[in-house]
Amino acid sequence: MLVQEFRKKSNLGISSLGILMHIEFKAFWRNKNILITQVVQPTIYFLFLVMGLGGALGTITYFNMDIQYQSYALIGVMGLLIVSQMTQTIYRTTIDKRWGLLSLKFLSGIKPFYYIIGMSTYPVIGFTVQSLLLYVLTLPFDLNISFIQFVIVILIGIISLLFWTSIGIMITVFINDYQKRDTIIAMMMLPLGFSAPTFYLAENVPQYINIVASINPLTYQVTAMRNTLFGIQDHFYLLLAVGLTTLSLICGIWVLKRSNLVIKEN
Protein backbone atom coordinates (compact mmCIF):
# COMPACT_ATOMS: atom_id res chain seq x y z
CA MET A 1 0.00 0.00 0.00
CA LEU A 2 1.33 3.45 -0.91
CA VAL A 3 1.81 6.04 1.82
CA GLN A 4 -0.83 8.25 0.25
CA GLU A 5 -3.35 5.38 0.29
CA PHE A 6 -2.55 4.52 3.90
CA ARG A 7 -3.09 8.13 4.87
CA LYS A 8 -6.55 8.12 3.28
CA LYS A 9 -7.68 4.73 4.60
CA SER A 10 -6.44 4.97 8.20
CA ASN A 11 -8.97 6.59 10.46
CA LEU A 12 -9.03 6.85 14.25
CA GLY A 13 -12.35 8.66 14.11
CA ILE A 14 -13.47 10.98 16.86
CA SER A 15 -11.25 9.17 19.37
CA SER A 16 -8.31 10.98 17.77
CA LEU A 17 -9.80 14.27 18.94
CA GLY A 18 -9.78 13.07 22.53
CA ILE A 19 -6.16 11.97 22.20
CA LEU A 20 -5.05 15.33 20.81
CA MET A 21 -7.02 17.32 23.38
CA HIS A 22 -5.49 15.27 26.19
CA ILE A 23 -1.96 15.89 24.87
CA GLU A 24 -2.55 19.63 24.45
CA PHE A 25 -4.24 19.92 27.85
CA LYS A 26 -1.21 18.37 29.57
CA ALA A 27 1.18 20.52 27.52
CA PHE A 28 -0.60 23.71 28.59
CA TRP A 29 -0.53 23.06 32.33
CA ARG A 30 3.08 21.84 32.26
CA ASN A 31 4.41 25.00 30.63
CA LYS A 32 4.92 27.27 33.63
CA ASN A 33 6.33 30.17 31.60
CA ILE A 34 3.26 30.23 29.37
CA LEU A 35 0.98 30.07 32.42
CA ILE A 36 2.66 33.13 33.91
CA THR A 37 2.32 35.00 30.62
CA GLN A 38 -1.35 34.04 30.35
CA VAL A 39 -2.00 35.63 33.74
CA VAL A 40 0.19 38.72 33.44
CA GLN A 41 -0.94 39.79 29.95
CA PRO A 42 -4.69 40.35 30.63
CA THR A 43 -3.95 41.80 34.07
CA ILE A 44 -1.72 44.53 32.63
CA TYR A 45 -4.14 45.23 29.78
CA PHE A 46 -7.04 45.66 32.19
CA LEU A 47 -5.43 47.55 35.07
CA PHE A 48 -3.37 49.99 33.02
CA LEU A 49 -5.08 50.28 29.64
CA VAL A 50 -8.78 49.65 30.25
CA MET A 51 -8.98 51.39 33.62
CA GLY A 52 -6.62 54.16 32.52
CA LEU A 53 -8.65 55.05 29.43
CA GLY A 54 -11.90 54.43 31.29
CA GLY A 55 -11.00 57.05 33.88
CA ALA A 56 -10.54 59.62 31.12
CA LEU A 57 -13.51 58.71 28.90
CA GLY A 58 -16.14 57.68 31.47
CA THR A 59 -19.49 56.92 29.82
CA ILE A 60 -19.85 56.44 26.06
CA THR A 61 -22.74 55.80 23.67
CA TYR A 62 -22.86 52.45 21.89
CA PHE A 63 -25.88 51.50 19.72
CA ASN A 64 -27.85 54.32 21.42
CA MET A 65 -26.97 52.91 24.85
CA ASP A 66 -24.98 54.69 27.55
CA ILE A 67 -22.32 52.29 28.80
CA GLN A 68 -19.11 52.50 30.78
CA TYR A 69 -16.05 52.69 28.56
CA GLN A 70 -14.36 50.05 30.72
CA SER A 71 -17.00 47.50 29.71
CA TYR A 72 -16.55 48.46 26.05
CA ALA A 73 -12.76 48.17 26.21
CA LEU A 74 -12.96 44.89 28.15
CA ILE A 75 -14.22 43.18 24.99
CA GLY A 76 -11.43 44.88 23.07
CA VAL A 77 -8.89 43.24 25.37
CA MET A 78 -10.54 39.87 24.75
CA GLY A 79 -10.18 40.52 21.02
CA LEU A 80 -6.46 41.15 21.43
CA LEU A 81 -6.14 37.97 23.47
CA ILE A 82 -7.91 35.97 20.76
CA VAL A 83 -5.43 37.12 18.10
CA SER A 84 -2.42 36.62 20.38
CA GLN A 85 -3.50 33.02 21.09
CA MET A 86 -2.96 32.24 17.41
CA THR A 87 0.78 32.30 18.13
CA GLN A 88 0.33 29.41 20.57
CA THR A 89 -1.20 27.29 17.81
CA ILE A 90 1.68 28.18 15.51
CA TYR A 91 4.15 27.24 18.25
CA ARG A 92 2.51 23.86 18.88
CA THR A 93 2.13 23.05 15.16
CA THR A 94 5.75 24.03 14.54
CA ILE A 95 6.83 21.46 17.14
CA ASP A 96 4.78 18.84 15.29
CA LYS A 97 6.44 19.77 11.99
CA ARG A 98 9.97 19.94 13.33
CA TRP A 99 9.90 16.51 14.96
CA GLY A 100 7.81 14.74 12.32
CA LEU A 101 4.77 14.46 14.58
CA LEU A 102 2.50 16.14 12.03
CA SER A 103 3.12 13.38 9.47
CA LEU A 104 2.93 10.69 12.15
CA LYS A 105 -0.44 11.94 13.36
CA PHE A 106 -1.90 11.97 9.85
CA LEU A 107 -0.54 8.49 9.09
CA SER A 108 -1.97 7.26 12.39
CA GLY A 109 -5.46 8.16 11.24
CA ILE A 110 -6.02 11.67 12.62
CA LYS A 111 -8.13 13.58 10.13
CA PRO A 112 -7.48 17.28 9.37
CA PHE A 113 -10.68 18.51 11.06
CA TYR A 114 -9.85 16.72 14.30
CA TYR A 115 -6.27 17.95 14.07
CA ILE A 116 -7.37 21.59 13.83
CA ILE A 117 -9.83 21.27 16.72
CA GLY A 118 -7.37 19.28 18.81
CA MET A 119 -4.53 21.74 18.26
CA SER A 120 -6.91 24.55 19.22
CA THR A 121 -7.20 23.08 22.73
CA TYR A 122 -4.04 24.83 23.93
CA PRO A 123 -5.16 28.37 22.94
CA VAL A 124 -8.78 27.72 23.93
CA ILE A 125 -7.71 26.86 27.48
CA GLY A 126 -5.47 29.92 27.55
CA PHE A 127 -8.21 32.24 26.29
CA THR A 128 -10.77 30.83 28.74
CA VAL A 129 -8.40 31.26 31.70
CA GLN A 130 -7.56 34.82 30.62
CA SER A 131 -11.22 35.75 30.11
CA LEU A 132 -12.28 34.43 33.51
CA LEU A 133 -9.39 36.35 35.07
CA LEU A 134 -10.62 39.51 33.35
CA TYR A 135 -14.08 38.97 34.82
CA VAL A 136 -12.60 38.59 38.31
CA LEU A 137 -10.65 41.83 37.80
CA THR A 138 -13.86 43.70 36.95
CA LEU A 139 -15.57 42.80 40.24
CA PRO A 140 -13.91 45.43 42.49
CA PHE A 141 -14.72 48.17 39.96
CA ASP A 142 -18.49 47.62 39.88
CA LEU A 143 -18.88 47.32 36.10
CA ASN A 144 -22.14 45.37 36.53
CA ILE A 145 -21.36 42.66 34.00
CA SER A 146 -23.65 39.64 34.08
CA PHE A 147 -21.65 36.43 34.57
CA ILE A 148 -24.07 34.43 32.40
CA GLN A 149 -23.77 36.89 29.54
CA PHE A 150 -20.01 36.96 29.98
CA VAL A 151 -19.85 33.16 29.68
CA ILE A 152 -21.79 33.42 26.40
CA VAL A 153 -19.29 36.06 25.27
CA ILE A 154 -16.45 33.63 26.06
CA LEU A 155 -18.16 30.95 23.94
CA ILE A 156 -18.42 33.39 21.02
CA GLY A 157 -14.77 34.22 21.61
CA ILE A 158 -13.86 30.53 21.39
CA ILE A 159 -15.76 30.21 18.09
CA SER A 160 -13.85 33.25 16.82
CA LEU A 161 -10.59 31.80 18.13
CA LEU A 162 -11.06 28.73 15.92
CA PHE A 163 -10.89 31.07 12.93
CA TRP A 164 -7.45 32.30 14.00
CA THR A 165 -6.12 28.87 14.99
CA SER A 166 -7.05 27.56 11.54
CA ILE A 167 -5.20 30.50 10.00
CA GLY A 168 -2.21 29.81 12.25
CA ILE A 169 -2.05 26.14 11.25
CA MET A 170 -2.27 27.02 7.55
CA ILE A 171 0.54 29.58 7.91
CA THR A 172 2.70 27.00 9.68
CA VAL A 173 2.10 24.34 7.03
CA PHE A 174 2.66 26.74 4.12
CA ILE A 175 5.85 28.42 5.37
CA ASN A 176 8.75 26.14 6.29
CA ASP A 177 11.24 28.91 7.09
CA TYR A 178 10.62 29.79 10.74
CA GLN A 179 12.38 33.18 10.47
CA LYS A 180 10.14 34.23 7.59
CA ARG A 181 7.11 32.90 9.47
CA ASP A 182 8.02 34.77 12.66
CA THR A 183 8.49 37.98 10.69
CA ILE A 184 5.09 37.66 9.04
CA ILE A 185 3.37 36.94 12.36
CA ALA A 186 5.12 39.85 14.09
CA MET A 187 4.02 42.20 11.30
CA MET A 188 0.43 40.91 11.48
CA MET A 189 -0.24 41.15 15.21
CA LEU A 190 -0.37 44.92 15.80
CA PRO A 191 -2.40 45.80 12.66
CA LEU A 192 -4.87 42.99 13.36
CA GLY A 193 -5.32 43.92 17.01
CA PHE A 194 -5.57 47.69 16.73
CA SER A 195 -7.19 48.29 13.33
CA ALA A 196 -10.32 46.57 14.67
CA PRO A 197 -12.48 48.63 17.09
CA THR A 198 -10.88 47.14 20.17
CA PHE A 199 -10.57 50.46 21.99
CA TYR A 200 -11.90 53.15 19.64
CA LEU A 201 -15.48 53.94 18.59
CA ALA A 202 -16.09 53.70 14.86
CA GLU A 203 -17.93 57.04 14.67
CA ASN A 204 -15.07 58.93 16.35
CA VAL A 205 -12.18 58.00 14.07
CA PRO A 206 -11.05 59.03 10.56
CA GLN A 207 -12.70 57.19 7.68
CA TYR A 208 -9.52 55.37 6.63
CA ILE A 209 -9.48 53.53 9.96
CA ASN A 210 -13.03 52.29 9.39
CA ILE A 211 -12.08 51.18 5.87
CA VAL A 212 -9.18 49.13 7.21
CA ALA A 213 -11.38 47.79 10.03
CA SER A 214 -13.99 46.62 7.52
CA ILE A 215 -11.54 44.07 6.04
CA ASN A 216 -10.36 42.84 9.44
CA PRO A 217 -12.26 39.73 10.63
CA LEU A 218 -11.59 40.71 14.24
CA THR A 219 -13.89 43.72 13.76
CA TYR A 220 -16.93 41.49 13.30
CA GLN A 221 -15.90 39.05 16.01
CA VAL A 222 -15.43 41.81 18.60
CA THR A 223 -18.72 43.44 17.61
CA ALA A 224 -20.56 40.12 17.99
CA MET A 225 -19.11 39.73 21.49
CA ARG A 226 -20.01 43.31 22.47
CA ASN A 227 -23.56 43.05 21.19
CA THR A 228 -24.03 39.89 23.25
CA LEU A 229 -22.59 41.46 26.39
CA PHE A 230 -24.82 44.52 26.14
CA GLY A 231 -27.93 42.58 25.11
CA ILE A 232 -28.23 44.10 21.63
CA GLN A 233 -30.57 42.01 19.48
CA ASP A 234 -28.55 42.10 16.27
CA HIS A 235 -27.39 38.64 15.20
CA PHE A 236 -25.77 39.71 11.93
CA TYR A 237 -22.29 39.99 13.44
CA LEU A 238 -22.66 36.71 15.31
CA LEU A 239 -23.67 34.88 12.13
CA LEU A 240 -20.79 36.53 10.31
CA ALA A 241 -18.32 35.43 13.01
CA VAL A 242 -19.61 31.85 12.79
CA GLY A 243 -19.44 31.99 8.99
CA LEU A 244 -15.84 33.22 9.04
CA THR A 245 -14.84 30.38 11.37
CA THR A 246 -16.62 27.81 9.20
CA LEU A 247 -14.86 29.11 6.08
CA SER A 248 -11.49 29.09 7.84
CA LEU A 249 -12.00 25.50 9.02
CA ILE A 250 -12.93 24.37 5.51
CA CYS A 251 -9.81 26.04 4.08
CA GLY A 252 -7.67 24.53 6.84
CA ILE A 253 -8.99 21.03 6.14
CA TRP A 254 -8.35 21.49 2.42
CA VAL A 255 -4.76 22.62 3.04
CA LEU A 256 -3.96 19.83 5.50
CA LYS A 257 -5.38 17.15 3.21
CA ARG A 258 -2.92 18.25 0.54
CA SER A 259 0.06 18.97 2.78
CA ASN A 260 3.34 17.17 2.14
CA LEU A 261 3.96 14.39 4.67
CA VAL A 262 7.72 14.94 4.33
CA ILE A 263 8.14 18.48 5.63
CA LYS A 264 11.45 20.20 6.22
CA GLU A 265 11.36 22.87 8.92
CA ASN A 266 14.14 25.39 8.26
Automatic annotation (TrEMBL):
Task: Report the subcellular localization.
Answer: Cell membrane; Membrane
Q: Which residues form the ABC transmembrane type-2 domain?
A: 33-259
Pfam families, sorted: ABC2_membrane
Residues annotated as transmembrane:
43-63, 69-91, 112-135, 147-171, 183-202, 235-256
Bilayer disposition of the protein: Multi-pass membrane protein
Q: Which domain of life is it from?
A: Bacteria
Q: Can you supply one Gene Ontology CC term for this chain's record?
A: ATP-binding cassette (ABC) transporter complex
In Gene Ontology terms, what is one molecular function of this protein?
ABC-type transporter activity
- Which UniProt keywords are given for this protein, alphabetically ordered? Cell membrane, Membrane, Transmembrane, Transmembrane helix, Transport
Q: Which family does it belong to?
A: Belongs to the ABC-2 integral membrane protein family.
**What name goes with this protein?**
Transport permease protein
